[in-house]
Give the backbone structure.
Amino acid sequence: MITVVKPGLLTTVQDAGRPGHRASGMPVAGAMDRLALAVANRLAGNDPGAAALEFTLMGGTFCFEEGAVAALAGAEMPAALDGVPVDSRSAFTVPAGGTLTLGVARRGVRACLAVQGGIDVPRVLGSRSTYLRAAIGGLEGRALRAGDRLPIGPPPAVRFAAPPRPFPAMALPGSPVELRVISGPQEDRFAPEGLETLLSATWKVTTQNDRMGYRLDGPAVRFRDGADIVTDAVVPGAVQVSGDGKPMVLMADCQTTGGYAKPFTVIGPDLRRLAQARAGDEVRFVRCTQEEAVAALEEERAWAST
Amino acid sequence: MRIRAQGEGGVVVELGDAIDPAVNARVHLLARAIRERLGGDVLEVVPSYRSLLVIHDPLTTPRDRVVERVRALADEVERAPAPAAGRIVRIPTRYGGVHGPDLADVARLAGLDEDEVVRRHAAPRYLVHFLGFTPGFPYLGGLDPALATPRLDSPRARIPAGSVAIGGVQTGIYPVESPGGWRIVGRTPLRLFDSRRPDPFLLAPGDGLRFVPVDDATYDAVLADVGSGRHEPEVEE
């Protein structure tokens, strides 16, 4: 059992998400930086998609009743065990009664803390991920609070081998953050100069950024005939342009459907880069082909699978 | 039919350009055919008004293969006879009062009395075009145009689960407590989403739906049954 002493800014239980129910309106949710989730889990000896804690900008203080093996990945967050700094980039052992303190992120936004055995909250539709908007999954469907107690699952029957260090793919993105995009589904809704604006401008992450989406600021994008489309299905990574001509990149907790035109889609393996960007950071969209996207996905899977 | 990409693992199949029950019926027909016949190649099918999103793993099933197979299936479905109408799920609804605080406003804006609004809202066989917005939220077609009412100028922060509401030319039911700008005309004791049930979702895309006005006693009785897990929703086949 882990007792939450200080919960941080927004700390939730997340795993690899809840796909399979989008036709019923259920968002996928899951870790915003899915590579960080996989690496932290593998370091801790877990299945890459096991349930972990996702911190946002700031960690927190956690007291471990029983001893545990833990690992951290994603944003650079200083970690200390009973006041002594630990190298959180490899697995570390927390003794029974030990207190783990995670500070403010030096770089990046979201870090995942994996504990061997995983965070053992009940599964909802096959996943332990918290979906805040409908209060589903995680601990009572909400962010952690001081005093919460988190059960740790039994150690996995098969220990997953730790990935080799260092993790080149884990590097936090530089500035501007480059996001590769695949054309479609509604590129034809935009005037040619509108597409040119989207691809040539440097966009700024606004303060309107959360697990549902990142709104970006920059020059207004011109449409061919308006922002509204007949509502259709959307995925995390879809770039929606609303009536004011500003793009929003949909993230893990996005709704399953939306009514704004979508010129292109950020490829899955690059979404973690945006998840690690904060307000004021610069973003650029770069076109890529299906072949490049598949190669990037293969590289990510090589880390995320055994 | 137009086929577009949505990311490296999404294929969008558009069967039309507008909200049209006939187009939507073909969407559901094709969605079912893809699930039944291409299960090995496809992870999920997400229908909406006039299109489907087909989600696949591009590392195990290349996009070209998905597109080719979906195209072939769509041609086959195109030639198939129109499907028989599906089931109709009955939604007991307490209109007005504390359960429907905006019923009076909707009546005033429509130039009708409250009873007439209820009668007209409960008359049609609605179509669940698709589910979205929040888990289990039905986008319904079939609202009497006389009941179309503009959304609230400022959305409410919390709308109770089960609220039946009108927004513009649409009507729907809020499955979970959420913010919203539609006008609330009533409430159902049914749970459109309940993670404790084996199938947590009351409605499926393509279902028919009818609102059934009930009084407080019936509302309370159904609510008690739902709370204890004894309630079976009424379905007209």
Remarks:
- The two ends of chain A are 28 Å apart (CA to CA).
- The helical segments of chain A are 34-43, 192-200, 271-275, 290-304.
- The interface with chain B takes residues 19-27, 124-125, 133-136, 182-186, 230-235, 237-238, 255-257, 262, 265-268, 290, 293-294, 297-298, 301 of chain A (CB under 8 Å).
